[in-house]
Amino acid sequence: MAKRKRLADDQTILQAIIEAMHEKKAVDILTINFSEIKNTICDYFVICSGMNKPQVEAISDSVYGKLRKTYSLHPQAIEGIQNAEWILLDYGSIVVHIFMEYTRKFYRLEDLWADAKLNYYDNLV
Asked: How large is the average pLDDT for residues 51-75?
């Protein structure tokens, strides 16, 4: 099966994800760059937090909607919609993690990869 042609590169998609998160007032947004590390399942994680379940759902909807409308991208998998404590949107080379604050503090994904590059984005647009 031939690979589908990408309408945008990863950096453009990352920027769109971060913008969609900012639109719904996500906090503590960061990216983890795995592209220079061998044998990883993706090139980037994008992680953010929401203050409550409705906000976490709104952030997820914002990311999903922006990528669908702008780039015709649909996630390969979506997890966590039912309880909205940790929603995962898998776009192949980019995996989006949207957490409730206490769930993010418990799992601490950003602390698991000391050799990956982390980029932090302030909480203002």
From this structure: 98
Domain residue ranges in the chain: 10-121
Domain 10-121 has CATH 3.90.180.10: no
Q: State the alpha helices, DSSP H only, in 39-100.
A: 53-71
Please, what is the end-to-end C-alpha distance for the chain in angstroms? 40
Do 75 and 90 meet the contact criterion of CB atoms below 8 Å apart? Answer: yes
| Distance of alpha carbon 102 from alpha carbon 23, whole angstroms | 22
Provide the CA 70 distance to its chain's centre, in angstroms.
Answer: 16
Confidence (pTM): 0.91
Contact 40, 117 (CB under 8 A): no
Give per-residue pLDDT as tens, 103-113: 999 999 999 98
Residue ranges of E strands in the chain: 27-33, 44-50, 77-79, 86-90, 94-100, 117-121
Sheet holding 77-79, edge to edge: 77-79, 86-90, 94-100, 44-50, 27-33, 117-121
